[in-house]
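User: For my dataset I need records formatted as: sequence, then structure tokens, nothing else. Please produce one.
Assistant:
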Amino acid sequence: MTSPRTWPILEIIMSQEVLKASSTTTIDRRSKVRIPALLRKSIEETYGRDVFVTTLDRKTVSIYPLEEWDKIQDKTREMFSNSPEFGGFFRFVHTLGTLEEIDRRGKVPINKSLRNVMRLDGEIAIKWEEDHLVLSAK
């Protein structure tokens, strides 16, 4: 039995429409990235519109539904709270990370510091990976 919380995402990912859809987007003049419509609809139905935007590796931007980001934080605290790297991890992701909301047009703001570090301008690749969106410079 599939979980109703994951089915909409799986349905979209498996659909031919998404496979045929463009996997590129651009950052507009207001520093926002548009999420492809079918994927956005599925994310909003499954998780709502609140997201956490950050980088984990300084190579890609990750846009996590807030519910998924909260799970990552909880799991990380549980597993590594006694590790000296624990505080550094959260400082790293929160220094460039911001809480955002997917707007009515399906766009998510990318803060200036993150854009500069990631050198995101012009055309960028966008894809869904298990529980979050990944953006990378083309």
